């Protein structure tokens, strides 16, 4: 594993936030009294949360993971329904305001880096698109693959739901905040987007790097192949940090603290690497 040559601005921002919010004490820690540690949020961060939960359960701790979307994770943290919100985007200003209004200071912990990969059916001969070409597909301006030099086949554009952090990243970097076309289909998870493309010859969708396998084909975007190397170096254009949010900075040594810093351990690094994300550490 090569060390990252650059530190993403989001990582720096999150680190500053975590440091300056150190005065804030986290909410009561139910896991310390034998109750399960509750994790909720992003389906992208889901594989990491699940694997971390398995490791902690092997150590005798109870952990429950719920994966419904980054927006749901933020809401659950603000409402006190979880101790850790998994998010594939940073909290929005409105979410921060709701938290602060309830006396909660959200603290961001960057757990890994990820790329948002544009995928098509393996039978599709097209191997590369520009961000502008992808944008035109999702705007409804490109409706047949023959317009891009592919087969005479209708394009079936599949998007994540608007509460998804993956959607937010794609909407900002690829769509440049333009609206989606009327024919775009919406699904509520990375696995659903993957499965829809794997079963649809004209399909196109976008998923986290961990959800790219032989059943789908990831396209080069602006000439760059999505990979751990290109994401770590900052050359792949559609990349983002992944977050664990807590309500205040967790008590040092607490179970919440151990969970949100587990990625900094050698075991945590191995898990993140095995799940096809980009670790922040270099062992």
Descriptive account of the structure:
This protein has 283 residues and is an alpha/beta fold. It has 2 domains: 9-113 and 241-274, Periplasmic binding protein-like II (D-Maltodextrin-Binding Protein, domain 2, 3-Layer(aba) Sandwich), CATH 3.40.190.10; 114-233, D-Maltodextrin-Binding Protein, domain 2, CATH 3.40.190.10. Helix content is 33%, strand content 20%. It is built from 10 helices and 11 strands. Strands 1, 2, 3, 4, 6, 7, 8, 9 and 11 form a 9-stranded mixed sheet that branches. Strands 5-10 form a two-stranded parallel ribbon. The longest helix is centred in the first third of the chain and has 13 residues, at 46-58. The chain starts with 8 loop residues before the first helix and ends in a 9-residue tail after the last helix. Residues 1-28 have low confidence and may be disordered.
Number of helices: 10
| CATH class category name of the largest domain | Alpha Beta
Q: Which CATH architecture of the largest domain?
A: 3-Layer(aba) Sandwich
Whole-number radius of gyration? 19 Å
The CATH superfamily of the largest domain bears the name Periplasmic binding protein-like II
CATH domain fold name of the largest domain: D-Maltodextrin-Binding Protein, domain 2
Averaging pLDDT over every residue, what do you get?
A: 90
Q: Ranges with pLDDT <50 over ≥5 residues?
A: 1-28
- Give the amount of beta strand, in percent: 15-25%
Largest sheet: 9 strands, mixed
- Helix percent band: 25-40%
């Amino acid at each position: 594993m090569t060390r990252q040559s650059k530190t993403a601005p989001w990582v720096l921002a999150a680190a500053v936030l975590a440091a300056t919010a150190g005065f804030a004490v986290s909410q009561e820690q139910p896991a310390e009294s034998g109750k399960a540690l509750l994790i909720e949020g992003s389906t992208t961060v889901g594989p990491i949360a699940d694997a971390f939960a398995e490791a902690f359960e092997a150590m005798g701790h109870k952990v429950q993971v719920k994966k419904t979307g980054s927006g749901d994770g933020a809401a659950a943290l603000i409402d006190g329904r979880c101790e850790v919100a998994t998010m594939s985007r940073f909290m929005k200003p409105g979410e921060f305001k709701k938290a602060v209004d309830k006396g909660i200071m959200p603290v961001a912990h960057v757990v890994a880096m990820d790329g948002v990969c544009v995928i098509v059916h393996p039978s599709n001969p097209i191997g590369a698109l520009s961000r502008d070409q992808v944008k035109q597909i999702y705007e409804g301006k490109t409706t047949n693959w023959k317009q891009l030099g592919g087969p005479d086949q209708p394009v079936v554009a599949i998007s994540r739901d608007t509460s998804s952090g993956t959607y937010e990243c794609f909407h900002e970097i690829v769509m440049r905040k333009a609206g989606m076309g009327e024919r775009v289909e919406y699904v509520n998870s990375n696995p659903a987007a993957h499965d829809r493309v794997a079963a649809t010859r004209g399909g196109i969708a976008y998923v986290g790097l961990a959800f790219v396998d032989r059943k789908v084909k990831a396209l080069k975007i602006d000439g760059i192949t999505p990979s751990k190397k290109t994401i770590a170096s900052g050359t792949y254009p559609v990349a983002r940090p992944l977050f664990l949010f807590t309500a205040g900075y967790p008590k040092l040594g607490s179970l919440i603290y151990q969970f949100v810093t587990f990625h900094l351990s050698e075991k945590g690094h191995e898990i993140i690497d095995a799940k096809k994300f980009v670790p922040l550490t270099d062992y």
